[in-house]
Amino acid sequence: MIEKTLRRAGTYLLILFLAFFALIPIIYVVLASFKPGSELFRYPPTLFPENWTLENYRDVFHRADFLTYFKNSAIVSVLSTILTVIINTMAGYAFAKYRFRGNQFIFMFFICTLMLPLEVLMIPIFRMVQRLGMYNNFLGLIIPPAATPMGVFLVRQFFFSVPNELNEAARIDGASETATFVHIMLPIARPVMSVLAIFSFMWRWNDYLWPLLVIRDNKLFTLQLALANFNGEYSVDWESLLAMSVVSMIPVLIVFLIFQKQFIKGMVTSGMKE
């Protein structure tokens, strides 16, 4: 019993050490955002500020149009996440519970797109965005990444763990396919939907390359594009850049804290099969 307790304590200590080691860069960024510019480049560097200041955060909110960029990122991330969860949940459910001609071939073809780098797909997607009139507006950021192969795969694997007897019982009771999906399957799928929501929100919130191609108007810039603008040709506004980076972490952290229980449950069950 004592050996088991010591092994478990040693395991937890190792996990805590590795977690702290992984968090060191984030801790440094957070603490550095409270430093004045004169302390950022002091050698040897210090972890904690000698003179704590909130001027960096005040400058971000007053000098830069931070709230507009924050609002743009929130709109794109929230709407894109909602659309992603809806589309991928429906597609994953169809692949898992329905048998139709070409089911496996279509699914494997869809999953094979994971092997293609984004750079290969950018030109055709960009041309399509232009022709559909979605260039330089939020639709070009929300609609193209809505259906993701990884999301469909996660949902499909999750629904494999749901017994088919539930569908058959619902059909016997006279429930339609839509009613079965909405009232029975969706409540069961909350864990994997939470996983998908967290991943989608994080991807859209931190996305830089695709908004850089699609958005031209400064008023429509997302937070990541605004962060890039702090890098000047001859200098970098490190104080404002650090403060804005810290604030940009908060929404993703909040979303994870809200869905963390469902996230863990969904990650465990999405790899199961019946």
List unreliable stretches of 5+ residues: 270-274
Helix and strand string, N-terminal first? HHHHHHHHHHHHHH
Q: What's the number of extended β-strand segments?
A: 0
Structural class: mainly alpha
Give the overall average pLDDT.
Answer: 83
CATH level 3 topology: MetI-like fold
Strand content: under 5%
Secondary structure layout:
Elements: H1 2-32, H2 37-40, H3 55-63, H4 66-97, H5 103-112, H6 118-131, H7 139-142, H8 149-160, H9 165-172, H10 177-188, H11 190-206, H12 209-214, H13 223-228, H14 238-269
Helix pairs in contact: 3-14, 4-8, 4-11, 11-14
Task: Summarize, please.
The chain has 274 residues and is mainly alpha-helical. The chain has helices at residues 2-32, 37-40, 55-63, 66-97, 103-112, 118-131, 139-142, 149-160, 165-172, 177-188, 190-206, 209-214, 223-228, 238-269.
Can you describe this structure?
The protein is mostly helical and 274 residues long. The chain has a single domain (65-237, 250-269), classed as MetI-like (MetI-like fold), CATH 1.10.3720. The protein has 14 helices and no strands. The protein has helices at 2-32, 37-40, 55-63, 66-97, 103-112, 118-131, 139-142, 149-160, 165-172, 177-188, 190-206, 209-214, 223-228, 238-269. Helix 4 runs antiparallel to helix 11.
Keywords:
274 residues, mainly alpha, MetI-like fold, 72% helix, globular
